[in-house]
Specification:
The complex is a heterotetramer. By secondary structure, chain A is an alpha/beta fold. Helices cover 34% and strands 25% of the residues of chain A. In chain A, the strands form four sheets. A six-stranded mixed β-sheet of chain A has the order 6-7-8-3-9-10, with helices on both faces. A six-stranded mixed β-sheet of chain A has the order 16-17-18-13-19-20, sandwiched between helices. Chain A has a four-stranded antiparallel β-sheet with strand order 2-1-4-5, with helices on one face. Chain D: It is a multi-pass membrane protein.
Chain lengths: 498, 319, 406, 329
């Protein structure tokens, strides 16, 4: 197996302003290897992959690729050299055609003197799509007419078409449906069979264990361990990720699903084009109600509609008789909402911790309709202390915090105003296991105090570990209801999701 | 190592955050050196006189800028308010009604603009471009075919003094300062500018903030209209025409980020307005021509903003 | 590296641009650069006195000619320095400029701006700064109010009646030659007084020959009715959509048009349309003796010009100079501020124009030379008195001035 | 079905100018005059359309990338002054005037772009600075007088209806070609819709921004050329007065964006400008005072924006009908 090194990374260091992302990482990548890269968010795995893919330029350390020093100045150049990456975030551009996205940044190949040969461009793009077995999308389709999954497939087609020697896949599978994943896995195997390398980044340990030949564990920007297939063992990997053995309970220890009969929130017959198709549910006092499904089953939209951030075309949400029409009424009725997209929706990154926490608590902070710094600071400090938010001061901008601390700020903001019901959309996405555990315990504690939760999650273990009741959604409908049970297995649930 | 870097970095940040104040102090110093002994109470007085109107409108405008919006029609709105107050005085001969009319007109324009923006779901900037045309044609309509309309200068002579104008500025500034820093509206508008989606998810109503901001600006516009009449009781087609852009320049000069958000500060309006007036005085003392004056102003303007934002550079170009 | 390149690029580019601008500027402008005002050498007696000049439009060609006369001729010959204002188009701007001049320590202000003149006069009186009007006039009532103002010097310039007369004379000039098809350009009618009065003058001349004028209720220029005469009108200023020039082209191309009469800005707005129409059309206008009209007369586009000459503002300087020298009595009309009419030079053919043009634009030998002005300046000519001054100003016509010079 | 679709598209595209034409014809007929009475009216119409088209193309170039450029008007004025002086001083042939002016305005655009990417400030700020400098240069260069060429007959005959039509068509062809068939155009579009992704991928953002500014400058140069040669006169502008030049272009730009959904955007802008050209001619024929013109333009802009922004809601209102159609399928 250990034949030829294709890429050698020596002592890679990278800093973003005040945060250190990588502190001296050495990784050797071999031909024909599927390498898993695993670590909590902020561990540096995305930073590392973006460095080799040419997105980040200024870093310290050395890259040796195919025996030569290597320093790509952008993604296109990296790809031309044989390193292609499918990025975690949205990687396609709206309002332009599929073909233009596939050949973004290298249109100069199709034509000369800055002019374009459209025909050739479209032909090549269709070829790229055919290559990975996509026939329902054509080169002249506009990106905005495609759904998220198909857009991701375009990115995959784009990278694969260049036939790179190293393919980097950064948390892409979460955005894909079952069919999409099968396409991706086929590509990965095809690469391996052709003696090319794949770097697979994922939070899904099962996926990694199944697909990878080797695993590299990163934590806090440091390399923790390289693992061979023989060493793959879930608990051991988890321990490496966190850096210590987790003490105390991780999830809930009890298996009791009895909750109060009091209904605190009622969802009736919600319909929304493409997303929701007649959703009904009741949330009881002190209940943790889980909602699971595939990424695009409509559960994220459901969360937004419940909070009044989006409007349904039919049906309504009510809390003790009050209809929720917008965020304001929702908040008045004691509802809080933690968005899945933390950096863009839940927080204002270029505002301080203080501003982010106090923004929903101004009604509580104000005295005689005025807001004084003294009261505000006391209010915020209390939350900062309760949630143990690590920052220089409460005046620090949220953008400088780690993922876990950012999420703590979001929690603190809603708990500070003493919300009775929280809609949590993927609340532990990109959060360290340690923080994750703390949050789970907090949720449990609050549940015991009589707060109610709607927990929307893509992680099944999180759902089975926490909820009293679990609703599975598919194509905008609730397809199955499970109650908390020791025997509840993930494979039972998955069947209702796909 | 990391620690030291951090400290140095935030120290620099702190300094550039106050660069507009340094700019003001520098201008005061240059003015002092240039004018020397000829600085009198009169000099101070005219600096205040000349800054007051811009400062008032700019103070109100900070609200609109704080949530990342942009109003280009403020000058025309002030002109309309001033016109109406002149007409009101000529009908009623009451200074009080004149002030009231001016504020009412200012507020009404604000309400109409914000309601159009909110109900019709129009982008504020483009809306104000259209409003600029509408209001300037309204000015001509109010002129009714005359080259100018006026009130007797004795009528307002009692108010034509520095203490009164300063008093109005201070009152309005305190009102805005208070609302901006000590009420929900102020906090919410800053947060709205920083991240509109997060603000919406935190229950901040874009509509409410927009309407309140425009009403506050409207009060400022009304006061400015009134003061315009006091300062120069004869109004014509071009009255206050360049005020809108003077306000923009002043606010930017004062250190207000045009994108709004957390770094918004209400003091930028007053700092900026006084800086611009002092800059004019300094340039005058050098004896430049109109053209040279404007070039010097433009270069300084870019320089000040450049220094103020030196810590907020991104990899991609700002838009 | 990249960043560095950008900066170098910007620098190189800026230099290039400056070079380019210099190239085009240097070649085009035969006159000395009027911006240069630091060249006045200290004369023997005392510190230089500052005089503020308020102008309504820094880009107006007449005012630019005035500025050249003051800065290139008067500053060289008298111990004064002129400070010029920006364009003052509102009462507010006028007040700001007055404040600034006072703050700069001027001894006097000569004003060509009239947004709210009475307020400015009040301010100058309070500040102890002399004030004189270089163009335009005061009503009797206003003059009355100013009779005991020690710092108000007086006014020289065409009165509104004079403006009306200029328009009348111009129209009459063509009517008498038998022309019957006119295009009237009313300029800033009704907002600009001077344009309004000139237009009224033209209307009066037409009414005298039987044309009926129907005024409009909204104050804009009205319509004409006549069997014999055809009269079209244009008013307003250019806009960004091209509508103004569309209207101008339409009117100029109206069949049968013989004469264009403009209340101002003749060549600027109509020269091109005339050139493009290719028809034989006369043009009479009220403007000034400057390059544009030199070209216009040479090309046969204009054949009647009532215009100001650059040094027509010499006498008002003389009056102000007397005042700041403390010789107020020679500019007092029976103890009151003076108001003297000064009209236009009128050129009705190319030769007349060229003669006047030459004298008007000379900075070595302007119409009002130092020798001429010294005749009414007390410190140079102790025998002078107000009556001298008044008749000096009133002899403004080209012939009278050339006689004086000889 | 496809035929029906294209007919519908064509219908939407031409309905706006045709509608305006019908309304204006009606209004002029009431007053007993016709919209196009002689060649001068055709010329006015063509000239307005050309000026507005070029201004709107230039405005849209940067505005749609989120860059508001205050300096457009000042570039037109300054470039026409410099270019004309150079042409006259060096005795260049008359037809070369447009090329000289466009070259100069390209340089001015380049400078704008360089200032923007060097200072890395929001374009709305840099363009205010640049605009002030350009305005002031018009003053400094001409000693405040502006430039009058009313006796340069060989220059004044340039903006004939025929030449204007050629300029308009060639200009459209060039802009269309650049935006749809060149790498620059594609990169521009990609940067416009996904700045960060495009930059990460390695698109030359700075180069593209500079070229965009240059192109916008050159388009404004054409406007400067037309204004200079039709008016024979370009005045000096100070204190922000030059910005008004772009206001006329907002409505066509938005109409262009709307029509662009059904056809090509530059073409849409052209159709929008054509509409405004008709409106302008209507103003001339109806002899409306300036303030009324501005007022009407502003109202048209508001009305159109309102329509545009609430299309989503309109669709919702009509959604029931659509649903029933779906069921019947």
């Amino acid at each position: 197996m250990k034949e030829k090194i294709i890429l050698e990374a020596i002592g890679i260091k990278k800093r973003f302003g005040e945060t250190v992302a990588l502190q001296g990482v050495d990784i050797n990548l071999y031909r024909g290897e599927i390498r898993g890269l695993v670590g909590e968010n902020g561990s540096g795995k995305s930073t590392f992959s973006s460095i080799i893919a040419g997105i980040q330029k200024s870093f310290k350390g050395e890259l040796i690729y195919k025996g030569k020093p290597y320093l790509p100045s952008n993604m296109v150049e990296a790809l031309q050299n044989g390193i292609g990456m499918i990025v975690q975030e949205k990687g396609t551009i709206q309002n332009v055609t599929v073909a233009e996205n596939i050949f973004l940044g290298e249109l100069n190949k199709y034509g000369r003197f800055g002019l374009l040969n459209k025909k050739e461009l479209y032909n090549k793009a269709n070829q790229a799509l055919d290559n990975i077995g996509i026939t329902n999308i054509r080169a002249d389709d506009m990106i905005q007419n495609l759904n998220m999954q198909n857009r991701k497939l375009i990115e995959i087609a784009k990278v694969v078409f260049k036939n790179p020697d190293i393919l980097v896949i950064d948390e892409t599978s979460t955005a894909l449906s079952y069919e999409g994943r099968q396409i991706l896995y086929k590509i990965i195997e095809d690469f391996k069979s052709r003696d090319k390398s794949v770097v697979l980044i994922s939070h899904d340990l099962d996926e990694l264990i199944e697909k990878c030949d080797t695993l590299t564990v990163l934590r806090d920007g440091k390399l923790i361990k390289h693992l061979n297939k023989a060493e793959f063992e879930e608990d051991y990997i988890k321990q490496l990720l966190v850096g210590r053995e987790l003490e105390g309970d991780y999830y809930r220890s009890d298996y009791n699903h009895e909750v109060s009969s009091e209904v605190v929130l009622k969802v009736e017959n919600l319909n929304k084009e493409n997303d929701l198709n007649g959703v009904n549910l009741d949330l009881h006092k002190g209940e943790i109600l889980g909602i699971g499904g595939l990424s695009h089953c409509g559960m994220h939209t459901l969360g937004k509609v419940i909070f009044g951030f989006e409007n349904a075309e039919e049906g309504h949400v009510s809390i003790q008789g009050t209809k929720i029409i917008d965020e304001k009424t929702a908040m008045k009725a004691g509802l809080g909402y933690v968005s899945k997209d933390r950096d863009h929706e839940a927080l204002s990154l270029n505002s301080s911790i203080r501003e982010n926490i106090s923004i929903v608590g101004l009604d509580i902070i104000k005295k005689h309709n005025l807001i004084f710094s003294k009261h505000e600071k006391a209010y915020v400090k209390e939350q900062v202390d309760i949630f143990n938010i690590k920052a220089q001061s409460m005046e620090q901008y949220v953008s400088g915090l780690s993922g876990g601390n950012k999420q703590k700020v979001v929690f603190a903001k809603w708990m500070g105003r003493n919300s009775d019901i929280l809609v949590l959309d993927c609340p532990t996405r990109g959060v360290d296991i340690g923080v994750k555990q703390a949050m789970y315990q907090l949720i449990i504690k609050l549940k015991n105090e009589g707060k109610s939760f709607i927990l929307i999650s893509e992680e099944l273990s999180e759902l089975t570990g926490l909820v009293d009741r679990l609703l599975i959604m598919k194509d905008g409908k609730i397809t199955k209801e499970f109650f908390r049970d020791k025997e509840l297995s993930e494979s039972d649930i998955i069947n209702y999701m796909i | 190592m990391v620690e030291r870097f951090t400290n140095k970095f935030s120290g620099l940040k702190r300094i550039t955050n106050y660069s507009s104040w340094f700019g003001l102090i520098a201008l005061i110093s240059i003015y002092y050196i240039q004018m020397g002994e000829s600085i009198t109470a009169y000099s101070m007085g005219i600096i205040i006189e000349q800054a007051v109107i811009v400062a008032i409108v700019a103070t109100g405008a900070i609200f609109i800028f704080s949530f990342g919006q942009f109003d280009i029609s403020l000058g025309a709105a002030t002109a309309v308010a001033a016109m109406v107050s002149v007409i009101t005085y000529n009908r009623t001969e009451s200074i009080f009604l004149m002030l009231l009319a001016s504020i009412l007109v200012g507020v009404s324009i604000g309400v109409i603009e914000s309601i159009l923006a909110v109900l019709l779901n129009l982008p504020v900037f483009v809306l104000t471009v259209a409003m600029l045309s509408i209001l300037s044609s309204l000015v001509r309509v109010l002129l009714g075919g005359q080259s100018s309309i006026s009130i007797p200068s004795d009528a307002v002579a009692a108010f034509d003094n520095v203490p009164f104008k300063l008093f109005i500025l201070i009152c309005y500034f305190l009102l805005c300062f208070f609302i901006f820093n000590y009420t929900k509206v102020g906090r919410e508008s800053k947060f709205l500018g920083a991240n509109p989606i997060a603000a919406k998810q935190s229950g901040v109503s874009n509509k409410k903030i927009t309407i309140i901001a425009f009403i506050l600006v409207g009060i400022g516009v009304g006061l400015a209209g009134f003061l315009t009449v006091i300062r120069a009781p004869m109004l014509g087609q071009t009255t206050a025409a360049s005020l809108g852009l003077d306000v923009l320049v002043a606010i930017v000069f004062g250190g207000m980020p045009l994108s709004g958000g957390a770094r918004s500060k209400i003091s930028a309006a007053v700092v900026g307005a006084f800086s611009i007036v002092l800059l004019n005085q300094v340039l005058l003392s050098f004896g430049f021509s109109s053209g040279q004056n404007q070039i010097a102003k433009a270069i300084l303007f870019l320089f000040v903003v450049f220094v103020a934002t030196i810590n907020y550079r991104k990899k991609i170009l700002p838009r | 590296m990249n960043k560095c390149l950008n900066k170098i690029g910007l620098l190189v580019f800026s230099l290039l641009l400056i070079g380019l601008l210099a190239a085009c500027n240097g070649d085009s402008d035969p006159q000395t650069n009027g911006v240069d005002n630091g060249a006045n050498e200290e004369q023997d007696q005392g510190p230089t006195q500052k005089i503020g000049v308020q102008i309504y439009d820094a880009t107006d060609s007449e005012l630019i000619a005035f500025r050249r006369y003051y800065q290139d001729y008067i500053e060289d010959n008298y111990n004064v320095e002129f400070l010029f204002s920006d364009s003052l188009d509102t009462a507010e701007a006028e007040r700001t400029s007055t404040e600034n001049f006072i703050n700069q320590g001027v001894a006097a202000i000569i004003s060509f701006s009239d947004s709210d003149r009475m307020s400015v006069i009040q301010m100058t009186e309070d500040a102890g700064v002399y004030y004189a009007i270089g163009a335009g006039t005061l009503s009797d009532e206003q003059l009355d109010m100013l009779s005991d103002n020690e710092y108000f010097v007086g006014s020289i310039g065409p009165s509104l009646a004079e403006e009306e007369e200029v328009g009348y004379d111009m129209a009459k000039h063509y009517i008498e030659q038998g022309y019957t098809n006119f295009l009237l350009y009313a300029g800033g009618y009704p907002f600009v007084d001077m344009h309004l009065m000139r237009t009224h003058g033209m209307i009066r001349a037409l009414e005298e020959v039987g044309v009926t004028y129907n005024a409009r209720e909204d104050g804009q220029i009205g319509t004409f009715e006549s069997d014999e005469y055809t009269i079209n009108t244009v008013y307003g200023f250019p806009d960004d959509s091209g509508a103004f020039f569309g209207t101008v082209a339409e009117r100029v191309n109206e069949p049968g048009l013989e004469v264009i009469l403009t209340a101002g800005l003749g060549v600027e707005f109509f020269g091109t349309a005339l050139a493009q129409s290719g028809q034989d059309i006369r043009m009479g206008t009220v403007a000034s003796f400057e390059d544009a009209y030199y070209e216009g007369f040479s090309a046969g586009q204009v054949d009647y010009l009532a215009g100001k000459f650059s040094s027509s503002i010499g006498p008002i300087f003389a009056a102000v100079y007397n005042a700041i020298n403390g010789d107020m009595e020679v500019v007092r009309n029976n103890g009151n501020p003076f108001r003297i009419d000064q009209g236009y030079w009128i050129a009705t053919n190319v030769d007349e124009f060229n003669e006047m043009y030459e004298m008007s634009n000379s900075t070595e030998n302007p119409a009002y030379t130092k020798e001429l002005l010294d005749m009414v300046i007390k410190s140079e000519n102790p025998d002078t008195d107000y009556d001298n001054f008044e008749s000096f100003v009133q002899s403004y016509s080209f012939d009278e001035i050339t006689n004086l010079q000889d | 079905m496809k035929l029906f679709q294209s007919i519908k598209k064509i219908g939407i595209v031409i309905s706006i100018p045709v509608g305006v034409f019908v309304v204006l014809t009606f209004l002029t007929q009431i007053q007993g005059i016709s919209l196009f009475a002689h060649a001068g009216h055709v010329q006015t119409f063509v000239r307005s359309t050309t000026i507005i088209s070029f201004t709107a193309w230039a405005l849209a170039l940067n505005l749609q990338s989120g860059r508001f450029d205050f300096s457009l008007g000042s570039m037109a004025i300054l470039s026409s002054i410099i270019g004309t002086q150079i042409t006259i001083n060096y005795g260049l042939p008359a037809f070369s005037l447009i090329f000289v002016i466009v070259f100069i305005s390209g340089l001015l655009g380049l400078f704008s772009g360089l200032v923007y990417i060097t200072l890395k400030l929001a374009p709305i700020i840099t363009s205010v600075g640049v605009m002030l400098i350009y305005e002031a240069l018009t003053f400094v260069l001409t000693d405040g007088q502006g430039l009058l060429i009313s006796t340069q007959f060989d220059l004044l005959v340039l903006p004939s209806t025929r030449n204007l039509l050629i300029i308009l068509l060639v200009g459209f062809a060039i802009v269309y070609f650049i935006m749809n068939h060149t790498q620059f155009g594609y990169n521009h579009k990609a940067l416009q819709h996904g700045q960060e992704i495009a930059v990460n991928t390695g698109l030359p953002e700075k180069r593209n921004a500079i070229l965009t500014y240059m192109l916008a400058g050159m388009l404004m140069g054409v406007v400067g050329f037309i204004n200079m040669t039709t008016q024979g006169f370009t005045g000096v502008s100070l204190n922000f007065t030059s910005i008004s030049a772009m206001f006329i272009a907002f409505l066509p730009m938005f109409i262009g964006g709307y029509i662009g959904r059904f056809s090509e955007e530059r073409f849409g802008i052209f159709i929008g400008s054509l509409t405004m050209g008709l409106v302008t001619l209507g103003f001339v024929r109806l002899d409306l005072p300036r303030q009324t013109q501005e007022f009407v333009n502003a109202l048209l802009l508001l009305a159109f924006l309102t329509y545009l922004n609430n299309q989503g809601r309109l669709k919702l209102i009509f959604a029931f009908r659509k649903k029933s159609v779906n069921h019947s399928k």
